[in-house]
Model the fold of this input.
Amino acid sequence: MDLLTHWVEEHNFRGIKLYPNLGFYPSSPALAPLWQYAESRQLPIISHCSPGGIFQKRLPNPLERINPLTGSLLASVSPRKFARHFADPDQYIPVLEKHPYLRLCLAHFGGDEEWVRYYQQPWLGVSGNRKAGITSERSWFSKIVDLLRSEKYPNLYTDIAYTVFNLTDNMPLLKVILNDPLVRERVLFGSDYYMVEQERFEERRLSILLRSVVEEDLFGKIANDNPRRFLGL
Done:
């Protein structure tokens, strides 16, 4: 916190980036002062919210294996697989309930694999339809949409950085979900900058393709209006 307040208050830093996959839960008590400070100053926070990406290399210790939401012991799996427990959108619910005006962006809208999972699995979760054999957890895409639709957290956002590079699957779904007035006000355009270097076409081509799919008004909203509001400009 000393480092954070130094750079924000003395050097005018304008925001915070968090990466839970590196080995911490957003609801950890250690982060309580950060959430309080960020909400009080309306600092925008972008937090990685996708199972993919970088992760801690060591196996989770016994304390990390206790799910702070349920108190249950999580299975000991590889560090890559366990990282999804840290980044799960559900882990932000206790934080948002305590800090409802937190200016927070759940980056990547759950990530490409969770968008694909939304196509493959029904909206209902574990308790939704056991008789029909539906026992899988809801996709992160649907979890984030539910948080945005709740209208309980007016400064909660998400972004489509890198996720939208899966053009065939994800651009149509994006266009459909942007028709929801409770969602389209809180989606931010992003490309994930350096990640585009490994793709077959450049960032500019992506933005033009996206504009052609979602059309100019919606693109202007997610690429200009919403980011300005999120950043407090």
Observations:
- The domain at 2-231 is CATH 3.20.20.140 (TIM Barrel).
